[in-house]
Write a structure and sequence with these properties.
- The complex is a heterodimer of chains A (270) and B (241).
- Chain A is mainly α and 270 residues long.
- Helices cover 74% and strands 0% of the residues of chain A.
- Chain B is of the alpha/beta class and 241 residues long.
- Chain B has nine helices and ten strands.
- Chain B has a six-stranded mixed sheet with strand order 6-7-8-3-9-10, sandwiched between helices.
- In chain B, a hairpin with a 2-residue loop joins strand 9 and strand 10.
- The chains are: A mainly alpha (270), B alpha/beta (241).
- At the A-B interface, helix 1 and helix 4 of A face helix 2 and helix 3 of B.
Chain lengths: 270, 241
């Protein structure tokens, strides 16, 4: 299995797309920080207004940005990493007695998890560098904010971001296997996103059991899991962090279970 | 001894039958031709032999193992080329061979250079496969098939996309493999290729076996083209080979 994961990572590393997506991630981070900087009033902003760009509050911005753009990038990568195997016919070559199907798909899932972790760690490092820059701009840089409690929160949000990225990547992977098309992986993710948001928005006007549905959907739980402090309430927040973790893990299990089932039964004709 | 046994094989894609009660055996050391018009079920049959397509019914035994349960245990003894050569276009020819060799677990990377030399691709080994012509991809596929020195080859349209010189080289290579005592299942619709290379053939049409036997006995002085046209234009009966 280790060799197969290594082979998958080798292919990802050799793709130009991987580096293009990494470039997009870096540009997006710079853009988000710049926009926030402009939004709080630029160089003339008060210390209070610039709060979200300063340590330790900046971690919320880092992980929310990482989960937003990171999800999209990982969904694109997951869709093409799997979908183009059908398009190029390499899946037929690999499955023709060379590798057992569940090990092959397992290696893809593990390699996507490693990429999700890398995306989150790069985002964190990038965000910390930008956070130091903005903190130095508005006040003095000191490491007094680093406490065990903060490190715990950062660790939890890092894990939450990886979970969010994987949930969406597995959703895309399932669509790719179902349709044998890379574009349908991205399309399925967008389609689900629209449905999820529509149901969540609709539930605001509905009473009774309908209002509970968003508690079990991906987007509201993504918002919940990436909160720095529990108890802040917005229209998207419907659950606690443990609840959100369980729900997202359940979606991961469902999507990966469906993917393995479909892949195992699939006739490979390319 | 039969290297490959196909017994009462059926395959239906939704309501369309692609293979109907197909049975044949490939004996050790022979070149066996699977012949039929386009859409006759050759590639579907090969897909089932390689474990890519699940048969609706029937049994396939490859090197004494049931393909549905034990294919991996004998796969290192089988070299394959498929109608559509599947390679990663962003990797070089050498990297593609190394990749498939590595994931096969018993691949021998040292023989990549030799395999590339045999198919005349050594000078282009470092170029990305995306820049290769169809014929070069086909030759790279053949290099992949011979790389781990298997005993049994399953070659699906191996001369597809090759120029006349390339076709001649592949024919020579198949004859060389035959001289070395290798067993070959060759699926093709190029009758001249089959006539020159095969010891026995099976002709299939619409998924059914029309006839099967030693090529010399079947032809009885006729050319394969005349024999083939005659049998395929009629409605042949299914049978056991």
């Amino acid at each position: 299995m280790g060799k197969l994961v290594g082979a998958e990572l080798f292919k990802i590393r050799k793709r130009r797309m991987s580096f293009a997506l990494l470039g997009v991630l870096i540009c997006f981070f710079l853009l988000i920080f710049f926009l926030h900087y402009r939004a709080v009033g630029g160089s003339s902003a008060s210390l209070e207004a610039a709060h979200p760009l300063l340590f330790p509050q900046v971690f919320a911005l880092i992980f929310n940005t990482a989960s937003g753009i990171g999800t999209l990038l990982l969904v694109i990568l997951a869709s093409f990493v799997m979908g183009e195997e059908y398009g190029w016919g390499t899946i037929g070559k690999t499955m023709a007695g060379v590798v057992v199907r569940h090990r092959y798909l397992g290696a893809k899932v593990v390699s996507l998890f490693i990429v999700a972790l890398i995306i989150t760690l790069i985002s964190l490092v990038l965000g910390i560098i930008l956070g130091f820059a903005t903190t130095a701009h508005f006040s003095e840089v000191s490491l007094d904010f680093v406490t065990l409690s903060l490190l715990g929160k950062v660790g939890r949000m890092l894990g939450g971001t990886v979970l969010v990225l994987m949930t969406n990547a597995l959703l895309a992977l399932m669509f790719v296997i179902l349709t044998r098309s890379a574009w349908w992986g991205v399309g399925g993710y967008i389609l689900y996103g629209f449905l999820d948001l529509a149901i969540t928005a609709n539930s605001l006007w509905g009473g009774g059991w309908i209002s509970h549905i968003p508690r079990y959907l991906i987007i509201p739980n993504t918002s919940s899991i990436l909160q720095m402090e529990e108890g802040v309430s917005t229209w998207l927040l419907h659950s606690t962090i443990p609840h959100a973790t369980v729900v997202l893990l359940a979606w991961c299990l469902l999507f990966s279970g469906m993917s393995f089932y479909l892949f195992r039964r699939q006739d490979i004709t390319v | 001894m039969a290297v490959l046994k196909v017994e009462h094989l059926y395959k239906k894609f939704r309501k369309k039958a692609a293979v109907l009660d197909l049975s044949f055996e490939v004996e050790e050391g022979e070149v066996f031709g699977l012949v039929g018009p386009n859409g006759s079920g050759k590639s579907t049959t090969i897909g089932m032999i390689l474990g890519l397509i699940a048969p609706t019914r029937g049994r396939i035994e490859l090197l004494g193992k049931n393909v549905r349960t034990d294919l991996i245990s004998v796969s290192h003894q089988v070299g394959t080329t498929r109608e559509n050569p599947g390679f990663y276009p962003y990797l070089s020819g050498r990297d593609n061979l190394a990749f498939f060799s590595r994931i096969r677990s018993n691949g021998v990377e040292g023989s990549i250079d030799d395999a590339l030399k045999i198919v005349n691709l050594y000078s282009r080994a470092e170029d990305k496969v995306g820049t290769y012509s169809q014929g070069m991809k086909q030759r790279l596929q053949i290099a992949g098939a011979i790389l781990h020195d298997p005993d049994f080859f399953i070659l699906d349209e191996p001369t597809n996309g090759l120029d006349p010189l390339g076709i001649r080289e592949v024919r020579k290579l198949i004859l060389k493999l035959k001289e070395e005592g290798k067993t070959i299942l060759l699926a093709s619709h190029l009758l001249s290729e089959v006539e020159q290379l095969c010891d026995r053939i099976a002709i299939i049409k619409a998924g059914r076996l029309l006839t099967c036997g030693k090529i010399t006995e079947l032809l009885q002085g006729k050319s394969l083209e005349d024999f083939y046209v005659g049998i395929v234009s009629e409605n042949g009966e299914t049978g056991w080979c």
